Amino acid sequence: MNARVVLAYSGGLDTSVAIPYLAKMTGGDVVAVSLDLGQGGEDMESVRQRALDCGAVESIVIDAKDEFADEYCLPTIQANGMYMKQYPLVSAISRPLITKHLVQAAQEFGGTHVSHGCTGKGNDQVRFEVSFRALDPSLDIIAPARDYAWTRDKAIAFAEEIKLPIEQSASSPFSIDQNVWGRAVETGYLEDLWNAPTKDAYAYTEEPGLGNAPDEVVISFEKGKPVAIDGKQVTVLQAIEELNRRAGAQGVGRLDMVEDRLVGIKSREIYEAPGAITLIRAHEALEDVTLERELARYKRLTDARWSEEVYDGLWYSPLKRSLDAFIAESQEHVTGDIRLVLHAGQIIVNGRRSPQSLYDFSLATYDTGDAFDQTAAKGFVQLHGLSTQIANKRDRDGGFPTSANGQ
């Protein structure tokens, strides 16, 4: 049986050169699959045609923006998904969706192999390949950059050798991945941790110090899902796009971090995620109002674990599915409005209201009308600290004497 490789195709130099290179290495055909995840930039029809011009036997473009927003971004909002308490999983949540469509294309077009452009140093190779094996382990996997030591200079030389009809430029100092949820920037001079990012590293956000007037926005949620902005009904995709625009104009959502990669190395990453950060911050503020204390405490633990599972490429794992079920149940009462101010790179929550609120004014107030029984507090405090009190007495006294019978 002749090989047929289904390639995750971005339209850039590396994956364009990969089409004839994979055909040469496998002796088979290449099917290019591109997903529109709201990344903007080039027209997707141009991307589709470029793959054909580079030798693909089929080139498919899938508009997956709403699917991405509803089935991948929304769970991330509800899980307050932040790896290392900072990174809103911009690339991590896109990989299982891309993988899903590559597997479907392989099944439709008789694919024997699937291919991605990731290196052996990064997390994305894991995210792609673990998902491939979870969905269809019969498919062989090829990663040219890793398996064939494929570098950018080799890609350019190969493109020139076969006169590939693409722009062969290595001028950009960065490696960039972006979608509607955010933008990830790495490599180049950023690999020196002392170098500050320059203006050209950013595209989704304005400089926070520009002096734009503060922007006050009200985000409405129903069961943990954003449904309106300033009273206007929106889809999840529209909510992300609107807040990308408004929060981005205020310089909100910039992140410069050194993260712990799954492969064991530390990597300096620059992220922009204005809509993502704003939605997660608003969602957290609403959970503060609507989740019971013990549920809220435990959910903070599961949110962190969910984020690690997704970051580590385990979107289809049993643990992640079980965490999904817990998180979905926790959202039953997360309904209401959060008012916040976007300004100079900051998000300031200054208003909360919910028909499911657990905030009781009569219990919280210190003024007339206070319904809290303060006489009950004295005994509560004594019992709450009793075990600590006993342990500290033992430690001060060097232990308690035993009874007469030695017990």
UniProtKB/TrEMBL annotation:
Q: Which reaction equations make up its catalytic activity?
A: L-citrulline + L-aspartate + ATP = 2-(N(omega)-L-arginino)succinate + AMP + diphosphate + H(+)
Q: Which CDD domains match?
A: ASS
- Say yes or no: keyword ATP-binding present: yes
Cellular compartment(s): Cytoplasm
The UniProt record lists the Arginosuccinate synthase C-terminal domain at 174-390
The reply to whether Nucleotide-binding figures as a keyword in the UniProt entry is yes
SUPFAM superfamilies per UniProt:
Adenine nucleotide alpha hydrolases-like, Argininosuccinate synthetase, C-terminal domain
**Which positions in this protein are listed as binding L-aspartate?**
T119, N123, D124
User: Pathway, according to UniProt?
Assistant: Amino-acid biosynthesis; L-arginine biosynthesis; L-arginine from L-ornithine and carbamoyl phosphate: step 2/3
User: Main EC class of this protein?
Assistant: ligase
Principal location class: cytoplasm
Annotated binding of L-citrulline, by residue: Y87, N123, R127, S175, E259, Y271
GO-annotated biological processes: argininosuccinate metabolic process; L-arginine biosynthetic process; urea cycle
**What Enzyme Commission number(s) does the record list for this chain?**
6.3.4.5
Instruction: Name the UniProt key words of this record, in alphabetical order.
Output: Amino-acid biosynthesis, Arginine biosynthesis, ATP-binding, Cytoplasm, Ligase, Nucleotide-binding
GO cellular component terms? cytoplasm
Q: Where is the Arginosuccinate synthase-like N-terminal domain?
A: 4-165
- Which positions in this protein are listed as binding ATP? A8, Y9, S10, G11, G12, L13, D14, T15, S16, G117
Binding partners and assembly: Homotetramer.
Concerning PANTHER family, the annotation shows:
ARGININOSUCCINATE SYNTHASE
Regarding protein family, the annotation reads: Belongs to the argininosuccinate synthase family. Type 1 subfamily.
User: What is this protein's name?
Assistant: Argininosuccinate synthase
